[in-house]
Amino acid sequence: MKRFGFTHGTAPDTTVPGSSPIDYVVVDDVGDFSYYPSEAAMLDNLEYVDEAACILDRAGNDYRLTMDKDRHLRLGPSLGTVEFNWLRQAWTTNQRRNMQTHPLQRFSPETLEALLAGLFEMLYLEQSGRTTDTPWVLEVDGEVTHPATLQEVNGLLTREDHLERVTVHDPFGHDYQPIRHAGHRFSFPTGRSIYYVEVPGRFKRDGVHH
Fold first, then answer.
1. Residue 143 CB coordination number (10 Å)
2. pLDDT at res. 1
3. Cβ neighbours, 10 Å, residue 185
4. High-pLDDT (> 90) share of the chain, %
5. Judging by beta carbons within 10 Å of its beta carbon (0-12, 13-18, 19+), is residue 179 exposed, middle or buried?
6. Cα separation of 156 and 108, whole Å?
7. SS3 assignment, position 81
8. For the chain, domain boundaries
9. pLDDT level of residue 160 (50, 70, 90 thresholds)
10. DSSP 101
């Protein structure tokens, strides 16, 4: 699988989660998760039939890849609804294994609907160059900025020595406490990767505290 990323700048409607065409989440043959804004983008990126162990739409329908008569990859029919416990465990395992790729650590979902919604949102935010018109909100010691992407949030926080003073609010309404990953004992604190642990809501939608 070629690593898929979105173009920086204002995203067209086809890359906004939930818009037409239908978007997908793919769990590949080694357990990695990826988001695709359309079926065409997914088929262009995947390379062989067994590469996708599970392909999901927002309703939780579970698909596999097939080949047409010309041996081009195609999306097969739904095999039914994905199993909740399997999907939650697969996602948790992948997050723990790839924390730099999947730094958003939200509360554990209790329903398939919540799990699917969170997967599509988090993977989109982690992979995209830009989200919708709603920016991130970053508050550091009472000063608020509005980065456009998670990558921009990371860039701003690499210069912060005291992440305990920071709160991050994503475009979908979730609040996080950034935490610097424990790296090698000789590495500089600001050089370590950052992950984001969800906390109870602190912001209103406009970025002002409750």
1. 7
2. 59
3. 5
4. 69
5. middle
6. 27
7. strand
8. 13-127, 137-199
9. confident
10. T
